[in-house]
Specification:
Layout (H helix, E strand, L loop, with lengths): L1 E5 L3 H18 L4 E5 L2 H4 L7 E5 L7 H12 L5 E5 L4 H7 L6 E4 L4 H17 L1 E6 L2 E6 L5 E5 L2 E5 L4 E4 L3 H8 L5 E5 L2 E4 L3 E4 L3 E4 L4 E3 L5 H11 L3
Parallel strand pairs: 1-2, 1-3, 3-4, 4-5
Antiparallel strand pairs: 6-7, 8-9, 8-12, 9-10, 11-12, 13-14, 14-15
């Protein structure tokens, strides 16, 4: 697992990196950290598996960096915010930037290790194995923006390609249920909530400007619960 830490406080960045190194040694996990002190430096890099973002980074705040990361990679990114500000979680929610976690500074090692346990576990559980003819294909759920019904087939849309499988959408709904990030918004569509940028009474808009019809009357509550679930 490759982890990026972005914080303009050098001491706190090095301290967090050291805690993660200790965690990796205790668990015997293959984890590599890279530290950044500005959002602009971080945005020059390729995608990391997990981002620890200070809420106030100096040249950019955490929300701005998160939005830029999602735009750059055109897909979900896993973000845990570091903050001293009690209002940070509310502001993140109001900007509809999904956060996978919050840690109060100075970071409590035990809380950090609990977060890392979940992130590491999820990195291996966020995959679905689907049949493709006589073969099997592994699909990573975080890369799927939405799933579209096409008769008795399902089309899995990523930022770069469309994957075609001989599964009914109802079967996909069952297979993707463990990820907790997919919801049926219409009889013909499931969306990955990580990609939702906005919605209204009739449609859901995903990052990149893709708009899908919305018929699920419970969507607002489902999306709200999804945004807040990472804090529990």
């Amino acid at each position: 697992m490759n982890i990026a830490i972005c914080d303009d406080e050098v001491f706190e960045t090095e301290q967090l990196s050291a805690l993660i190194d200790t965690y990796a040694m205790r668990r015997d996990y293959d984890i590599h950290c890279k530290c950044f002190h500005t959002g602009s430096d971080l945005l020059q890099e390729e995608k990391f598996d997990l981002y620890f973002l200070d809420y106030m980074i100096g040249d950019m705040n955490g929300v701005e960096v998160a939005l830029a990361l999602k735009a750059k990679f055109s897909q979900a990114v896993t973000i845990c915010y570091l903050t001293n500000f009690e209002s940070a979680a509310t502001e993140v929610i109001n900007h509809q930037v999904y956060a996978d976690g919050f840690l109060k500074k100075p970071v409590d090692p035990q809380l950090l290790y609990e977060k890392l346990d979940r992130f590491y576990r999820d990195s291996f559980s966020s995959r679905v194995i689907l049949k493709k003819g006589n073969k099997q294909q592994t699909v990573y759920t975080q890369e799927i923006m939405y799933i579209e019904a096409d008769g008795k087939r399902s089309l899995l849309h990523t930022a770069d390609e469309v994957l075609d499988f001989n599964y009914l959408l109802s079967e996909m709904e069952r297979l993707f249920a463990p990820s907790n990030s997919f919801v049926r918004v219409h009889r013909s569509y499931m969306v990955n909530l990580s990609y939702v940028s906005s919605y209204d009474a009739k449609s859901v808009t995903l990052r990149g400007g893709i708009t899908l019809p919305l018929k699920n009357k419970n969507f607002r509550a489902i999306y709200r619960d999804y945004l807040f679930s990472s804090q529990t």
